[in-house]
Here is the input.
Amino acid sequence: MRVSDFHFDLPGYLIAQRPAEERSASRLLVLDGVTGAISDRQFADLPELLQPGDLLVFNDTRVVKARLYARRPTGGRVEALIERVLGEGRALAHLRPARSQRPGGVLHFDGADATVVERRPDDLFVLQFEPGVNIYQLMEEAGEVPLPPYIVRDVEHDDIHRYQTVYGRVPGAIAAPTAGLHFDDRMFRLLEDRGVERCHVTLHVGAGTFLPVRVQDIDQHRMHSEYMEVSEQACRQVLAAHARGGRVVAVGTTSVRALESAAAAGALHAMASDTDMFITPGFRFRVIDAMVTNFHLPGSTLLMLVCAFAGRERVLQAYQHAVRSRYRFYSYGDAMFVTAAQPRHAV
Here is the structure.
């Protein structure tokens, strides 16, 4: 398939620049993956769409203040987006401008210096900070929340809290698992009253989630690796939900990729590793039965994943409906509840 197979027209005014006043006050488009039926709901209706015994799976990664600014010895300004802390004072980073960065170059951050060690084939740079620097502390004190590139405004104080899920607990992401932004304490109480269970996985979302697919043939695209963990406890809860006839509902495409990566060998198992899983139409889903997700960019790997789950034509028709109905798109936008086009392959 080609990238153009996943195109849709989106007016710029539908790209949400700020979150809804309340987390769960967004709209919810419901798509039946089997029939293609579409209905317009409110996110507060989500408990009505679930059954006692269903299991919601959340990505508990936490966004860090990964955008830092530095000066080169010549005085030039450099923007660094810390993709991953490697340990021993090293980090992977996106640097802008990239073409002027050379191995051996020194970057002066606010309170710390770092040396450019190498530029990798994936265009990420390895930075070595001076001894004694706690990179997480540096980001917390001198960094800013890295809002997505389609939010065209400066970071505001409220973003520190709103571009973060209420349950995020494992620092390491540079982008929020945005489907989770709609959940608040009131929603969790309603779900508990409904008899819906929940568990957590971890996938540290990287900047690759926003990178365009630069090849027309999607089979030629390679995903950036992201670190993920699926615990033994999460595996037990997933298997128990399936055994009792409940559905496993992934909250966000990152939860989907974590779960399906942990079942890629055929049986779901605990996993703590990098994943570069790229889910496209034809993929055999082994774990999830439904998903909660936001609306994604045209031609993006995230849209391709949703199309793989519910059918490309049905998903694009739902997106056309969303545009006509003026749903709000992307990270701070509205949500979808999507069921599978095909039964999952049992694990």
Observations:
- The longest helix spans residues 312-324.
- The two ends are 27 Å apart (CA to CA).
- The first strand starts at residue 27 and ends at 31.
- The chain is about 20% helix and 25% strand.
